[in-house]
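Design a sequence for this backbone.
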């Protein structure tokens, strides 16, 4: 596998000035409750996550707009692609391919460490 990114929390005070337009679905890794740590200086949410780096397993997999098998496909991820998991449930992982996106849900069963 290739080098894995390392993310750390920004240092010092972070200015908050005015409203921020929410990103389009499938864009930046920002939800109402959670965002990628790399966006801490630009998007205000209750929690920021340092991603858990995973990879798509032995078969290509769909990154979906919602945690449902019949949700809109954001993008197809090739086997071996890096996926930065930000939130995981028993069946789904929400995350991105990097702090610039694309972002969506993927079944945990298709992810390898």
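Sequence:
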């Amino acid at each position: 596998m290739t080098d894995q990114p390392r993310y750390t929390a920004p240092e010092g005070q972070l200015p908050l000035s005015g409203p921020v337009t929410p990103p389009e679905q499938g864009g930046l890794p920002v939800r109402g409750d959670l965002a990628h740590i790399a966006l801490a200086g630009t998007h205000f949410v209750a929690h920021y996550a340092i991603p858990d780096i995973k990879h798509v397993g032995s078969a290509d997999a769909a990154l979906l707009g919602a945690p449902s098998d019949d949700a809109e496909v954001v993008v197809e991820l090739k086997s071996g692609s890096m996926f930065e998991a930000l939130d995981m449930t028993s069946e789904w992982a929400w995350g991105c391919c990097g702090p610039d996106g694309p972002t969506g849900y993927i079944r945990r069963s298709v992810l390898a460490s």
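The radius of gyration is 14 Å.
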